[in-house]
Task: inverse folding
């Protein structure tokens, strides 16, 4: 991380307000805008720029169709403009996003407005509506038809919303033709590993296209299955990075556009920040923590509960939860059966002690016997009963103590259906559902190393990391009895799921036919279970859920 | 139902092949096309028209992105064209839908092709891509850019795919300008109550626009949460209906375009059919039956299991299941607790006897005691334990006998969260999830009346219909303790959910503030449970699921 001085006299001082909003919380989001404007006013900012759909939160999905919501959002923007004026903050130009209405078709718009002098001033509607991956904006919004260039203190300032800068044409080429001094973009760009540099390269390209600096303000925070990592920035007209806000935290950054239109050439010092990109393991881990933390806060949970098996998945989830809400707000439940090894119980107890969480042991023998006296199950059905008894117990903690139940499944399991629906799959949130098993191990090692570096207790027992994975639902069971080795499995999964490689492609990738056949069959058959799995944070380029919409009824077999 | 004679000599004889395809089953779908072409050839049909995306099934969702799937579909179309020629069927023009590839962008297309003379001939790509409600086609496909008019036996035949005729512009206005003798549309138009007449009025409008008859072939069958009801038809240039295939069954209809371009004026007799629209109760009931039946067949289930409480919901689901797969393939499990009334057990047994299903009684007392000895739960947590023990038992039947577990919740319950997740909500399919409670009663009465009319045993015990609904999870519990009266509740739900009415609107609708507040709060808080609920058939204009995509994390409260 590097800090350096700029100066701002005679120049336009811009504040980048990277905030964490909540979908639907019009009052809370407006209050946060006011709060950040106050801070920015203390630095005499001329403009304060907030993320996409600031007032409504993002994404609002079909809530956009409720006319009373759009009216309430619009009334809130009006009120906020008046409140900002009354607060006597030197009347900065405050750029916020909200939902608008296309009056001709009575359809929602993704809108950017400028609050100034007590009024809601200048509206720009998002032109390119992303409708791929996790995005459904073409479903919801009517696209904007025209570009908007503001004149603020004699500078020509172009406006764009998120996807608008991912396309060369439309408003960007229009502004390039007309000439601007600065391009301001507000964004709700969800996290995936390594995306930061993609955004900055893209903005650099657009800066060269419009021949002006580009300000990119991104939201931060978790919203259901999305995590927004922030990482707002400014690039110069030549694409050089001038300011870079940190990831995963709210932040108010500053940058000055000089009187001459060149940045960094003004008189008053402005301390700008150049945050480093986080390393891959850290950014993914922190995305999982923030996703869980915000799901809890925004849905009014103060604690969580989960089953602790002694294995690596529940250990990593517990560590993430401890970082999200503190060990004292976690109930970890060990639920041994006759097949649980002594080692597993010791590992679970060790983890609980390291994290300082509430640790309770509920053996499931008597429930198992009660079911079996009636049902006399064998094989997989008998295995599933154990997992489902545990599910009932976890949900009993959730119901009786108002705790968020956490599902501990990883992406490899979810892909292959290697879990018991209504058993270990129960929960309101699944913090590691987008992590392949090999990644789970990597993040566990990283988290321990991080603790060691800071002189703290390593949260995860080494034994949970190094022992061979097992569901322990029958005597001597190992994951490797049913699944290919995870190192191989995860490579096939990545190609099949994230790259949509079919059988021919997978063979061309060099995987052997037997593994390919096994993995494709397992993945295809487990779609119905994935559909009922809890939400969890997307951290890869293609997560299960709305990012990958495959039919359950699907007879295609390659 | 009415039949009348047309004649076809010198005219163009068209067969409307309303078939039930399966997503991904390229071989099975092609075999069905061949089969129907054979039948049509025996009548010397000149053209055989199949539904939208015949070869791939519909909708294929993100399966469209797998390049190996698109190549396999394309190879299958080639093979089918050759097979049709080799079969020596008089070489009709066979119109089928499939997935194509936009080579420039390597993106899928929703394509219509004509198989003729051993070749895949003439491609038309869907122009308007629906991306609302349950549809995500803009996500998946590149739109077509040009209209296609074929010359077949001297007649100018225009092509369109489904949504293309819902819009006045695009290919339709182009064809109207150029002049055509016949418009052929292939469709995958999902059922919702009363939609048949909407389609026919629309087609009549387009017929008048293009000044030619319109042939509308719709697919039939269930695909995950959608049911396609068929009801294919032909309207004349003046909009009059000339042929109407029945709903919910595969059907091969015929119609002749005379040499003069006027229909019904040719020499050879063609027996045309004018099926009546089904009454509302019957079409909704049959949609539920077909949805379940096809889910079973296409996912290789031969039987189902469900909990029988003696209440109306499980009774209606059992009746639907019996109509889908026969009573002998149903396992109905009565799982009484200390709170279950004698009457409920009698009603469950009576239902089982009427439907001839496997009836088993598994009292849950010992499991309940085993959990309570450990957990000592009270209130809602205690109630939920009972529902979850039942969920474990239902899933044990599913696992040990390879049965599809059915969830029995209705739309009112699902809306208000009046169910236990992982309890009564377990299952692979939920046949009545889009029926409000008042509709459940109506359909139960209708089904009994229908049986009576045909001299059969009424499937549903009258007592299950008339008694006050109760979850029987505590002493003397009634649904009315927690929820407004269903007659009122269902009206509020319909306005809030299907019409997206907000609080102001609901008050203007005449509902009292207390009820409005209660219902909105219940619905908003239950979103996370709905997300994990099984699939079930959409029968209304707005079903829960992909039809209504609301965030779980949503602080908007009116």
Result:
């Amino acid at each position: 991380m590097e800090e350096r001085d700029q100066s701002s006299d005679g120049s336009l001082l811009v504040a980048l307000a990277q905030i964490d909003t909540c979908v639907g919380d019009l009052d809370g989001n407006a209050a946060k805008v006011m709060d950040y404007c106050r801070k920015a006013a203390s630095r005499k900012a001329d403009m304060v720029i907030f993320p996409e759909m600031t007032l409504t939160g993002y994404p609002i999905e079909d809530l956009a169709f409720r006319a009373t919501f759009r009216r309430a959002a619009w009334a809130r923007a009006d009120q906020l403009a008046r409140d900002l004026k009354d607060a006597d903050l030197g009347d900065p130009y405050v750029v916020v996003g909200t939902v608008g209405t296309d009056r001709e078709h009575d359809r929602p718009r993704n809108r950017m407005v400028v609050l100034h002098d007590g009024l809601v001033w200048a509206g720009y509607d998002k032109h390119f509506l992303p409708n791929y991956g996790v995005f459904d904006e073409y479903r919801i919004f009517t696209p904007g038809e025209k570009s908007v260039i503001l004149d603020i203190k004699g500078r020509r300032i172009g406006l764009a919303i998120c996807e608008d800068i991912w396309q060369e044409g439309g408003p960007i080429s229009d502004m390039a033709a007309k000439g601007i001094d600065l391009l301001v973009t507000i964004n709700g760009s969800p996290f995936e590993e390594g995306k930061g540099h993609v955004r900055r390269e893209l903005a650099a390209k657009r800066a060269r296209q419009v021949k002006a600096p580009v300000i990119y303000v991104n939201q931060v925070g978790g919203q259901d299955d999305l995590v927004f990592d922030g990482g707002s920035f400014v690039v110069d007209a030549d694409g050089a990075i001038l300011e870079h806000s940190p990831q995963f935290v709210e932040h108010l950054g500053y940058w000055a556009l000089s009187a001459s239109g060149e940045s960094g050439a003004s008189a008053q010092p402005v301390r700008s920040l150049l945050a480093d990109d986080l390393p891959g393991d850290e950014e993914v881990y922190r995305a999982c923590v923030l996703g869980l933390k915000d799901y809890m806060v925004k849905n009014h949970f103060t604690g969580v509960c989960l089953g602790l098996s002694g294995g690596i998945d529940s250990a990593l989830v517990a560590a993430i939860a401890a970082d999200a809400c503190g060990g004292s707000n976690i109930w970890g439940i060990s639920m041994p059966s006759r097949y649980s090894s002594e080692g597993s119980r010791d590992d679970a107890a060790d983890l609980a002690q390291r994290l300082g969480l509430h640790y309770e042991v509920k053996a499931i023998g008597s429930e198992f016997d009660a079911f079996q006296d009636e049902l006399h199950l064998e094989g997989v059905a008998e295995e599933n009963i154990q997992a489902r008894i545990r599910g009932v117990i976890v949900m009993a903690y959730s119901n009786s103590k108002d705790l968020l139940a956490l599902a501990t499944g990883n992406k490899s399991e979810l892909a292959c259906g290697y879990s018991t629906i209504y058993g270990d799959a129960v929960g309101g949130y699944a913090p590691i559902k987008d992590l392949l098993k090999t990644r789970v191990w990597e993040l566990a090692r990283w988290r321990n190393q991080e603790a060691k570096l800071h002189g703290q207790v390593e949260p995860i027992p080494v034994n949970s990391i190094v022992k061979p994975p097992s569901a322990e639902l029958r005597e001597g069971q190992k994951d490797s009895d049913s699944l290919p080795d995870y190192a191989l499995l995860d490579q096939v999964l990545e190609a099949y799921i994230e790259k949509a490689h079919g059988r021919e492609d997978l063979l061309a990738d060099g995987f052997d036919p037997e593994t390919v056949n096994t993995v494709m069959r397992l993945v295809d058959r487990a779609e119905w279970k994935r559909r009922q799995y809890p939400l969890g944070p997307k951290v890869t380029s293609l997560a299960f859920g709305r990012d990958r919409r495959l039919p359950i009824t699907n007879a295609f077999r390659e």
Q: What stands out?
A: Chain B touches chain A through 81 residues (CB under 8 Å). The radius of gyration of chain B is 26 Å.
